[in-house]
Amino acid sequence: MILLAMSASCASHAEPGGRRPTSSVANPSCSSASLYSDREACYAGWAPETCSQSRECASYREMHLSETRLREVERRVIELATTQYASYLESDPTYVEDLTRSFISGTSAWRRYRDAHCEAEPLLQGMGRGEVGNLTEACRLELTKARINQIEVLLKAF
């Protein structure tokens, strides 16, 4: 599966109050963070030379950057849709509001799917608990990058 191939070379983000990452053995100040987003932000703050000495840091750092990019493209979709469909307000006053609500609901559901899927995948493959955290984060990173590409295709339609 995806993670078996990725585990050789590599080594996810929840909304506030979201899913908790699995345990980790890296820097206690980052590995003790209870949310993916907190752990990713912590590693993103490490100096590059410190990060390069950690088995976990690179994927968490990259995930932090990818999640930031994902949020940017999501905001851009809403901005462009609001502009593109402003003329609909006369005939359908709630069109843009409904579109925005549906898009935000979809992105939240996608993040919940991503996190749950990526937490289960290494366990389904029989990976040891010590490997699960890094593999989960690698999976989250891969799916997030794919989601960014998917939304960028939507952006080209505007």
TrEMBL record:
Residues 55-150 form the Lysozyme inhibitor LprI-like N-terminal domain. InterPro entries: LprI-like_N. It comes from the Bacteria. This is Lysozyme inhibitor LprI family protein.
